[in-house]
Q: What sequence folds into this?
């Protein structure tokens, strides 16, 4: 795969990334079959990528399986050192990685660089955690026995990453797997394969052995997904994406009772109580709603504001939203990039039309904002109620619906009235209310007086139909190890 001049001219070290090697993964793909990677802001061709098949995925799995025993047999310190090497290279080339990310995904360059640093933080965290995979001893019931627990790597991991955070998701899945002693086959989203390839290039330079990391490109993910789920050499699947696809992968894994960890869809509530500090709540709502143009699984999808402060919040929030600038992510003044594709534009338009037909009022935005590119104006709608599609479906775009509520218990019930349970946010100052609401919300993560809570040190994941397992923190490593009990007799 070769990057076009349109992209390489933006790089400081184009020689490192111009030819994104595939020698860490499959190489049998018919090179005549390719798919294009385009800049969603400009339509520029960035690269033509080999379109791989189930046979290519099978070959990558074989390579990972062949490398598994030797990789697991290394000392924890040896694996840690390689992760530290990778971390250093990601930091050294963060500007180029940010440029690649902005070009293929569209988010503003400052956001892209921040994401790259966040990815590096995950690599750093698990470079450290590799040395802390502890077992335990258990007091035996008799003096002639010793009882121990050890932790061993699960084995080959199949990882599938999304397009909205294509750098941090690669690091968040691969780093704990490598730290635990697992080899990996990664299938990145077809919209954003270049940042994954660039990070794999740096992993190769960091010294990871051949076969430990394997990369699969494919324009149709279901073919690769079926192979990863059905191949008995793959012992675990880690997936971030929609709940609908998660259900499908879960069914495909069920025949082998394959280990899974899924981070799926969300429908995050953002609640502003009357005792909240309003300016802080506005700041938090801007962060939680419009980061990455609203294309995040933890994006504030339903903003509930108590009646007493509803008008004040709506006015201040709308004023701030009007200041957001939409455009090409390489423009330093831009704060909102494009949506990922035409389908995303269509969905947000449907949600706005439905809300307006049912009595909602568009306070700002509401339209596509350019003749070319998938840009949409940041939008605020007031007078929204639970009958509207924005109350029931994840928009995944820069649309902020404001719901009015009176009773605190009612708003918690409304917030929980969804199949999803990934993230929730609320602003309040009364300590009794803070504890009550935090414990009552049925979500895996709750942001209290903050609109941003992701950290490599914290467990990221949801409940209900928002996922299984956790990523990040020491808990994220547990998903990549098996616990083995050893009972030693005759002592």
A:
């Amino acid at each position: 795969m070769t990057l076009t001049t349109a992209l390489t001219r933006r790089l400081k070290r184009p020689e490192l990334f111009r030819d994104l090697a595939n020698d860490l993964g499959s190489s049998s793909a018919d090179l005549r079959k390719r798919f294009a990677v385009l800049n969603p802001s400009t339509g520029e061709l960035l690269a033509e990528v080999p379109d791989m098949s189930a046979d290519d995925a099978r070959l990558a799995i074989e390579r990972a399986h062949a490398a598994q025993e030797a990789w697991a047999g290394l000392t924890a310190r040896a694996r840690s050192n390689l992760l530290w090497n990778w971390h250093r290279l990601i930091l050294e080339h963060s500007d180029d990685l940010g440029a690649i990310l902005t070009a293929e995904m569209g988010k503003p360059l400052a956001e892209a660089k921040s994401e790259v640093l966040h990815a590096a933080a995950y690599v750093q965290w698990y470079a450290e955690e590799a040395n802390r995979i502890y077992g335990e001893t258990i007091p035996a019931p008799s003096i002639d026995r010793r009882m121990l627990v050890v932790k061993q790597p699960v084995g080959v991991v199949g990882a599938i990453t999304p397009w909205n955070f294509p750098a941090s998701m690669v690091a968040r899945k691969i780093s704990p797997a490598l730290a635990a002693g697992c080899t990996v086959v990664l299938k990145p989203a077809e919209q954003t394969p270049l940042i994954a390839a660039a990070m794999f290039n740096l992993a190769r330079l960091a010294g990871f052995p051949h076969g430990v990391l394997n990369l699969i490109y494919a324009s149709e993910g279901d073919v690769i997904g079926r192979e990863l789920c059905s191949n008995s050499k793959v012992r675990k699947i880690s997936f971030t994406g929609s709940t609908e696809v998660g259900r499908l992968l879960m069914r495909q894994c069920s025949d082998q009772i394959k280990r899974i960890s899924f981070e799926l869809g969300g429908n995050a509530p953002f609640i502003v109580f009357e005792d909240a500090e309003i300016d802080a709540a506005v700041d938090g709502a801007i962060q939680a709603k419009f980061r990455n143009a609203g294309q995040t699984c933890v994006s504030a999808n339903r903003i509930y504001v108590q009646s007493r402060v509803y008008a004040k919040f709506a006015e201040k929030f709308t004023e701030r939203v009007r200041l957001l600038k939409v455009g090409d992510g390489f423009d330093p003044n831009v704060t909102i990039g494009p949506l990922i594709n035409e389908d995303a534009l269509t969905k947000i338009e449907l949600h706005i039309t439905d809300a307006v037909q049912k009595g909602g009022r568009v306070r700002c935005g509401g339209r596509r904002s350019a003749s070319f590119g998938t840009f949409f104006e940041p939008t605020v709608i007031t007078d929204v109620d639970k009958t509207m599609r924005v109350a029931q479906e994840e928009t995944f775009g820069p649309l902020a619906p404001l719901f009015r509520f009176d009773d605190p218990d009612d708003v918690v019930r409304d917030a929980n009235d969804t199949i999803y349970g990934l993230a929730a946010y609320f602003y309040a100052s009364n300590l009794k209310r803070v504890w009550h609401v935090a414990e009552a919300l049925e979500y895996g993560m709750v942001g209290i007086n903050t609109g941003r809570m992701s950290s490599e040190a914290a467990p990221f994941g949801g409940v209900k139909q928002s996922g299984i397992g956790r990523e990040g923190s020491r808990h994220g490593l547990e998903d990549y190890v098996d616990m083995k009990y050893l009972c030693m007799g005759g002592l």
Remarks:
- Confidence is low (pLDDT under 50) at residues 23-27.
- The longest helix spans residues 109-129.
- The chain has two domains: 5-264+466-486, 268-455.
- The chain has 17 helices and 18 strands.
